[in-house]
Design goal:
The structure is a homodimer. Chain A is of the alpha/beta class. Chain A contains twelve helices and 16 strands. In chain A, the strands form four sheets. Chain A has a five-stranded mixed sheet, sandwiched between helices. In chain A, helix 1 packs across helix 3, helix 2 packs across helix 3 and helix 4 crosses helix 5. Chains A and B meet through helix 1, strand 8, strand 13 and helix 10 of A and helix 1, strand 8, strand 13 and helix 10 of B. Chain A binds a DNA duplex through helix 1 and helix 3.
Chain lengths: 417, 417
DNA sequence: TGGCGGATCTCAGTCACGTATTCCCCTAAA
DNA sequence: TTTAGGGGAATACGTGACTGAGATCCGCCA
């Protein structure tokens, strides 16, 4: 079970690695700029000489990852030629495997969704059948999108945890019965012929934010994923933190309410037992705010129940408002634990349930967080909602591929095995 | 208060940086080996060619950071010449500024303490007086140690948080009254003429573990610092996590006991209010296990009271054992929150109070942690006590300098400003 | 139309790593 | 004692990425 990982000594680097790394640095700078950059600006930003920038730009132009997009001349002198990402320079596929629904997307280089599809997860959730369904869906998506298959960098898969990153397996997730140690990565790689990456859904969402989230996806932040469960993705200094086995971000058993309901872990008031949507809906049903006709334990029912709870709150139902507001207090406590542990500068909220709660949460959480922040006198913590939308899971999955291929990760510099 | 940090784009790298980085990689490999490495072994480990290793070895030999230490020939062929760290190749000074006591050390390159001193923190804790005392102490220590001042790489300072890493200031720590925004780094740099680094005590302890802790200081781990308060230092993939302002590792308000005593944060059963030594001693006094003659709120009194509590437990006092054991359960819960959030592979315990509790904690915590670990089915979490000893704070402070100067941090590759 | 300024490119130059070769040192057998 | 052989380490040369200086290109302005 516990294989001993021998301490992997840090490996050196060499010239080609350095060249590739600088290429990704420049691409990253262009990507993060709004509206492109000129070569001189790039030189200032990344600290390399103009000549080096020119050389690398040429490589990027040859690969068609960037394009020259017009000139920008203000005063005298030769106007700067603006370099911009070529959206069609590369594509990535992403799949979010959720217990209820499988979402797939084709993403272009700038992170825009080219094509999108959604199917219900095959009943019984037999792994083989689900994998076959995904492979089918992917093939269809590639055809429908009309994208040049040669430009597809790979397939990213976002799965609920726990996972084993080394093996590329999903390890017995609570809501997918019979999914113990399913070799998702290898199976899908074989079925689709694409290079495949598997990661946890919350991590994928954080990667989506770094790639397609604009300014809020830079630096060090925590992505709070509000889904059927609550988890978080962690990004420190522009690099995603995955943990030893890819399972970082498990915050379900942080205690947020000493007076809360009992949890299956034996304690009381964990995140998991006191502020996930399912619990809020149950509470509302108990209080008679919602009719408890259906037992809303399955994904879609919860989502629907939660929507009605929010509707009630929006139409002024005090009890509904109280439930949501209390959950904001509890979530803020969990967030504070994470931000105090990691001292990040920003918290980004997102996930399928986020849209409905965003207004109330954004109103309350910043103050709650500030009050509980250990470093409050040194720096504030920004609280924002993601701009990526409901499909963060699938988009993030695709971004896993882009990140792996094009992001300036320190890891890229190091020689491997 | 909150200065906006503009997103710093990742900067490129160049040839000299690469060379320096590879040098630190090799030094790191030698440092982490037990008993030195030959050039061929180095080539295998770091992945560079034997020639490159030879070239870099020469640079390291010229700088006298390493020495050739004998040969190792087993079969036919030329025997390997072993390269070892030269302990006298470089020295670093470390100071731990504690509310009660100021510990200073001179460390050599292998992390051994060359000289050591301890003075009580000047009463009234006026910052200027404390800084002057430290500067005096440092000067004395350098003279007494007989170390060549030219070989001293710098001065590290470990301070209780919160701190502001950019400014090098200590920001209003709870136990040092009147220490708001004290420019510790600049003041000590000026007073001693040494390059000075300031960091939080728990972070320093984690750095000590990476530098002087042997195998348990590699990879990804959390260092639990058991002091007057409980904090943690975080190391992911051999690099220390400091956070935006250097305040990562604040875990005092993680709730570990829903039935615990109220905390100044308004909730109940935080780490800070239920399992720090001061609380355990108070509890023992209340139960009559210890005579509550002195009100043990000051550092030394707490330490003494805690020692007597441990004595009682060791001599079989059931109630004393119960207090310690319960604290182990609570600490384990806090640790689980952190390890689940970060998915690390190891927890290292240390700090001034650790020695007395180590036996009971090491007996109980591994099982408790495994039971609460989200990734338990994928990998276990190793639980160990540090080998660094009581002075981790000061030793870690000195290691800050060594780490900054010699560790293969990814940051070192990047061009600056 | 010519001058000017700024951006970009060309062309060496430098430096670190990689490959092939040679040198050196030790073991072991004749 | 001598010699063959094997493996580590150094030397020489080649490659490739970044840097610096000057040339070139481009558009504005007089």
């Amino acid at each position: 079970m516990t294989e001993i990982r021998q301490p992997t000594p840090r490996r050196g680097t060499n010239l080609p690695r350095m060249g590739d790394f600088n290429l990704t640095v420049i691409l990253d700078a262009i990507r993060r700029s709004s509206g492109g950059l000129s070569r001189v600006e790039l030189a200032q930003i990344v600290g390399l000489s103009p000549q080096t920038i020119s050389n690398i730009s040429r490589r990027l132009l040859d690969q068609r990852l960037i394009v020259e997009a017009g000139k920008e001349g203000s005063g005298p002198g030769k106007p700067r030629t603006i370099l911009r990402l070529n959206p069609a320079g590369m594509y990535a596929l992403g799949v979010h495997v959720d217990p209820a629904v499988i979402t797939s997307v084709v993403l272009d280089l700038v992170g825009d969704v080219v094509k999108h599809s959604r199917i219900p997860t095959p009943a019984g959730s037999n792994p083989q059948r689900v994998i076959a369904a995904i492979a089918d869906e992917i093939k269809g998506l590639i055809e429908d999108s009309g994208v040049d298959p040669g430009k597809i960098a790979g397939l990213g898969v976002a799965a609920p945890g726990p996972i084993d990153l080394d093996e590329g397996t999903v390890v017995d997730p609570p809501l997918l019965v019979g999914w113990d140690r399913v070799y998702l990565r290898d199976a899908l790689a074989e079925a689709t012929g694409l290079e495949t990456l598997v990661d946890k859904d919350v991590t994928s969402a954080a990667v989506a934010e770094t790639w397609a989230g604009g300014a809020s996806g830079t630096g060090s932040f925590v992505f709070m994923y509000m889904g059927t469960g609550i988890g978080c993705g962690i990004v420190l200094n522009d690099e995603v933190v995955r943990g030893t086995s890819g399972n970082a971000g498990e915050i379900g058993h942080i205690i947020v309410d000493p007076d809360g309901p009992p949890c299956d872990c034996g304690l009381r008031g964990c995140v998991k037992s006191s502020c996930i949507p399912q619990v809020l809906v149950a509470e509302a049903e108990e209080q008679g705010i919602l009719d408890g006709g259906r037992k809303g334990t399955e994904g879609p029912e919860v989502q629907e129940g939660f929507a009605r709870l929010c509707d009630a709150a929006d139409s002024g139902d005090e009890r509904a408002i109280a439930i949501i507001d209390k959950s904001a207090v509890l979530v803020a406590r969990a967030v504070a634990v994470v931000t105090n542990t990691l001292d990040v500068e920003r918290v980004v909220f997102g996930g399928p349930f986020w849209a409905r709660m965003s207004e109330r949460y954004l109103e309350r959480i910043p103050a709650l967080l500030a009050a509980n922040s250990a470093a409050n006198s040194i720096h504030g913590i920004e609280v924002v909602g993601t701009g990526v939308g409901e499909d963060v899971g699938a988009i993030g999955a695709a971004c896993l591929v882009l990140e792996h291929t094009l992001a300036p990760r320190a890891q890229r510099l190091l020689l491997e095995g």
